[in-house]
């Protein structure tokens, strides 16, 4: 496999695996209707470590996958994840992701941004919930879940990145 395709294939497989884990196992661990969004967190990590363009492309592709697996309008998650991936890519020079707290806060921020964008766009298109109170409670629980999961996702992401660098260095 060519060196330039290897990261795309590896991260694509990771996004697919995250989507399968979400739909198969994590959907059963819902708290107040909220589950962690591993795909969003992987897109955030891609945007943060690889740049805004990669984050936007990965977000659009991952969002399409999420739309195909989910029940909302096709393209809704693709647009939201593309925007969040691009925005986190813009933050890469202003935030240093060290320790556990900063990745957790980035995960919470991405989760809140994603949920707010999703709610606004769904309301505009007429496919969103009519009342905001239950949605806000679910969004708060999702942000907590994503904040807890983001250090783990970022750790796995960095392990994959190091492995890809070793493979590319060996060829």
How are the elements arranged and paired?
Elements: H1 6-24, H2 38-50, H3 52-69, H4 76-90, H5 101-125, H6 132-170
Outline the structure in words.
By secondary structure, the protein is mostly helical. It has a single domain (6-170), classed as Arp2/3 complex 21 kDa subunit ARPC3 (Orthogonal Bundle). Helix content is 75%, strand content 0%. It has 6 helices and no strands. Helix 2 packs antiparallel against helix 3 and helix 2 (38-50) packs parallel to helix 4 (76-90). The model has no long low-confidence stretch (mean pLDDT 88).
Number of extended strands:
0
- Which residues form runs of ≥5 with pLDDT under 50? none
What is the residue-averaged pLDDT?
Answer: 88
Q: Helical proportion?
A: over 70%
Please name the defining characteristics of this protein:
171 residues; mainly alpha; Arp2/3 complex 21 kDa subunit ARPC3; globular
Question: What is the compact description of this entry?
Answer:
The protein has 171 residues and is mostly helical. It is 75% helix and 0% strand.
